[in-house]
# Entry
Amino acid sequence: MSRDLRGRAAVVGVAESDLGQVAPGLTPLDLIGQATARALEDAGLTKADVDGLFTASSYHALAALDVAEYLGLRPRYFDGTNVGGSSFVSHLLHAATAIDAGLCEVALITYGSTQRSDGGKLVTPSAPFPYEAPYKPRYPISMYALATSRHMHEYGTTRTQLAEVAVAAREWARLNPKAFMRDPLTVDEVLGSRMISDPLTKLDCCLVTDGGGAVVLTSPERTRSLGKPPVFLLGAGEATWHRNMSAMPDLTTTAASESGPRAFAMAGLKPADVDVVELYDAFTINPILFLEDLGFCGKGEGGAFIGGGRIAPGGELPVNTNGGGLSYCHPGMYGIFLIIEAVRQLRGEGGDRQVPGSNVALVNGNGGTLSSQVTALFGTEATL
Amino acid sequence: MTSPAAAYREHLDRGELAFQECGSCGKAVFYPRVLCTECGSTELTWRSSAGLGTVYATTALHPRDKDPYNVALVDLDEGFRMMSRVEGVPAPDVRIGLRVRAAVVTQDDEPVVIFRPEEAA
# Structure
């Protein structure tokens, strides 16, 4: 039985760097610097307070070292865990553990990427997998297309339902001044956009943008001297079952079916308790899979569940309230932006897209090709 | 010892699709490894697949200036899954559940396993 980490760490600062297409010459580390300075200011802390560093990068294999050097940090605890785009959600759990153990007191989680400025190709440090590469799948879209094909085959999920996920994300993005894509979007436009790896079209895919983010966590005791309302980590769980798509046991069930229950158990919560949901939507199939695997609906029901505007602004279950990777920002490893948005919603800082009365937020990070799943639950002080 | 990758390649060079079978629990293991992913045993024996399988998942890629091509996951009858492609039918027409048979072809001077629809008997 694990020690109870519920409420043992809280987010006190969040920020994005410049997003979208950043000024020429800015590097991923520059964006990390921007986001870090802004998140520390948001927290009312300074760089000298940071003694724990958590980071992952597609640009820097030894990211914790590059980032510590760039920022001028000498952390006493650092963690460069890289499990893909979910890494930063994983860092939440690791940081809470370190804070609770007294190994650090102020943890910085940070990320930056200039993927769009670098030519718009996914930057990946992964070597080609010799048992898949000869068939020339497009990484990662073809992997998600394979999972989508299977979900459609087993459960009758339709391309229209997938398109509804993209449209809901765009409706949220239209309420977010920082979102990259804010023009209206229709189901027909998604269905009619260029087919890339069927059944997924260009508009079933996340954006390719630049961007960075930073999240500052500390102990509940330390939050008392700080200005903004702390957002407590109530629970978190990790799971991975495969790396390569050909090794995924069942293409319609992700490891979020384990990471989710782990997070809910730690938090003492259930899906019905969640007010706002932030899911890693690299492709339109993702929210459908994760809503099923996290228990918001039954397996195979996700396509119908998201229909009728249920996850869109004004719907019963607000999902991806910043516009998601599909319409807001996706610099390659999106997970940190899930955390930033969840914290803003629980602080009531969502502006036009604020979900009124939000006390519990769920974040689900995804990494690789549905390979790593990390779930976190946040709550306001009222939930402790 | 012969590495798992080298042993697999030797079979491919003879036109065979090989997999490993666990001597302890019987699991079919693919891709080639030094231990069983089920029970952890290192007693793996090379087997030659009969090459018959079923399409488990499929996608057709649509490059801007080339013909579409298929990428599929195929479940072999011996109990392992691999990525490959189905040839002999238009890429978008490959369906989940299609019965297929393996063939070793040469691609960029390397032997590669592909599948073709198994004709109805």
Notes: Chain A has one domain: 10-117+207-383. The longest strand of chain A covers residues 231-240.
